[in-house]
Write a structure and sequence with these properties.
Blueprint (H helix, E strand, L loop, with lengths): L9 H5 L15 H8 L10 H9 L1 H7 L3 H8 L7 E5 L8 H14 L5 E6 L5 H12 L5 E8 L19 E6 L23 E5 L16 E6 L4 H8 L6 E6 L14 E3 L3 E6 L5 H13 L1 E3 L4 E6 L7 E2 L2 H11 L1 H4 L2 E3 L3 E2 L2 H8 L7 E5 L1 E4 L2 E3 L4 H7 L20 E6 L5 H14 L6 E7 L5 H16 L3 E7 L2
Parallel strand pairs: 1-2, 2-3, 3-4, 4-5, 5-6, 6-7, 7-9, 8-10, 9-11, 11-13, 12-14, 13-15, 15-18, 18-19, 19-20
Antiparallel strand pairs: 16-17
Length: 478
């Protein structure tokens, strides 16, 4: 309607109401009110009008008009104005002046509070971007969190902030649209000097170019792969104590460059592989095997293999490559946690893998209801008997000293095992703990599992829970 673009007039810009209401809202503690107000600071921009409303924080300004108390809180709380989201593709030459005015007001009201910026700058003319970036760059010393999406050949517009990112702690960066073949190696060094930067998420470039970052100081790095091998460069240079690297394979054609990959040594503490492309399990196991074949870890504590997306099939387990990696990386002494919930693994493959993990403390495994058109249950009496701990190894049917330090087990289960066998397994692991902290067991009943068997298993475990030797969590798929 014609009046829609004028709906937010000056009284919206300053948050004033002509007749402030007299209501008992002042009884709510200010810090709680501000937490509630925080939910109204941003919303999705779906068109030019909503983009302008979002920049003005129109919903927040409307709350400021409820009463004088709320007005004081909204206008006097810089944190409420410190989250700024821009989608420049909805800007136009006609709306630019109003958008810049709204942006400046927001920056002014945030005073000296650290800024969290979500800048979606793709698909926008450079001349429209320049004044926008200039206004944000004037406050670059307050940038704390930055999520940036921009065309690679326009990254040079951000040179205004180079060397002025002293408070930046988190960075998410995606290059969109544009000419990916342009040589931008010398342009994307903007974040190289950011002394407090600790966490990075990078949507990788589908070419040979890579971003310059202070990798040696980072605590975590998430690398969303687009068919490059740049993740190995990152892993080689991450060296901060306790550093975590997450590799998200998203390339829809599963073209993770050419196999084999160059052997790379990494000092990270946690490695998370998230297979996010919807591919057949056999293709994924080749990819996972190639990644494991390319690495040597000097001090890895945690290894997780994840699948992203509902209904995605699990991957199979490249047991030969894992055993070789475990030998190269001395997992016997270092690896403490292994998450294979997204992996379809056989009993023999699991036992072979665990044999190399003498320091393992936490294990997550799962049955998978339908694989290759048949039920695939890993958690059976046979496996539990193999994992039942025996102090003297007298039981010839068990691997008596397999993962002797295990103190936490998570299972997604079809409950195809006998309750008494599961009880004996848990009891043996409690005994292995020699009176230390309680053994932790998390059981998740899958949709196809028998609720009757699950109830019997829980019944067998309750005495240990009452004795506080077992900490049990149980849930089920609805």
């Amino acid at each position: 309607m014609p009046h829609q673009n004028d709906a937010l007039r000056q009284n919206d810009d300053d948050g004033h109401s002509s007749e402030p209401a007299s209501v008992p809202v002042a009884r709510v503690p200010p810090e709680i009110l501000c937490d509630i107000f925080g939910y109204f600071t941003s919303r999705d921009s779906l068109d030019e009008y909503r983009e302008l409303a979002n920049l003005r924080k129109a919903d927040l300004l409307r709350l400021a008009r409820v009463c004088s108390h709320w007005h004081t809180l909204v206008m006097g709380t810089p944190a409420l104005w410190s989250e700024i989201e821009v989608t420049s593709s909805y800007w136009s030459w006609k709306s630019q002046t109003r958008c810049i005015r709204a942006l400046k007001a927001c920056l002014d009201r945030s005073v000296e509070h650290p800024l969290a910026l979500r800048l979606n700058l793709g698909g926008t003319d450079s001349n429209l971007l320049r004044p926008l970036i200039k206004n944000l760059a004037d406050h670059s010393e307050r940038w704390q969190c930055l999520s940036l999406s921009i065309e690679p050949n326009k990254a040079e517009l951000l040179r205004l902030v180079k060397g002025k990112l002293g408070t930046l702690q988190e960075l998410s960066l995606q290059f969109v649209y544009g000419n990916y073949d342009v040589d931008i190696q010398d342009r994307i060094d903007i974040f190289e000097n950011a002394p407090k930067l600790r966490h990075v998420l990078l949507y990788s470039l589908p070419n040979r170019h890579f971003l310059r970052l202070p990798l040696k100081q980072l605590s975590s790095f998430t690398f969303q792969d687009n068919g490059t091998k740049g993740f190995l460069d990152v892993m080689r240079n991450l060296s901060a104590p306790g550093a975590t690297f997450k590799f998200q394979h998203t390339w829809p054609r599963n073209a993770l460059c050419q196999f084999p990959l160059a052997l790379t040594t990494s000092g990270i503490s946690a490695f998370i592989v998230e297979l996010a492309s919807a591919s057949i399990p056999q293709r994924l196991v080749e990819l996972l095997g190639a990644v494991l074949d390319s690495l040597i870890f000097t001090n890895l504590h945690t290894l997780d293999v994840l699948r992203k997306g509902p209904g995605f099939p699990p991957t199979f387990w490249p047991v030969d490559q894992f055993e070789a990696l475990a030998r190269r990386s001395a997992f016997q002494n270092t690896l403490r946690s292994l998450d294979l919930l997204a992996v379809c693994i056989t009993q023999d493959e699991l036992l072979r893998s665990l044999a190399a993990l003498g320091s393992l403390e936490s294990l997550s495994i799962a049955d998978h209801p339908i694989i290759r058109s048949q039920q695939c249950a890993l958690l059976t009496d046979a496996l539990l008997s193999q994992l039942t701990w025996s102090p003297d190894g007298a039981d010839s049917h068990s691997r008596a000293h397999l993962v002797p330090r295990l103190n936490r087990l998570h299972c997604d289960a079809l409950f195809r095992f006998t309750p008494q066998v599961y009880r004996d397994f848990i009891a043996s692991r409690i005994a292995a703990g020699a009176g230390g902290a309680p053994f932790e067991n998390s059981l998740f009943r899958m949709r196809d599992a028998s609720s009757e068997v699950a109830d019997r298993v829980i019944g067998e475990l309750k005495p240990m829970v009452r004795e506080r030797t077992l900490r049990l969590e149980y849930s089920s798929e609805t």
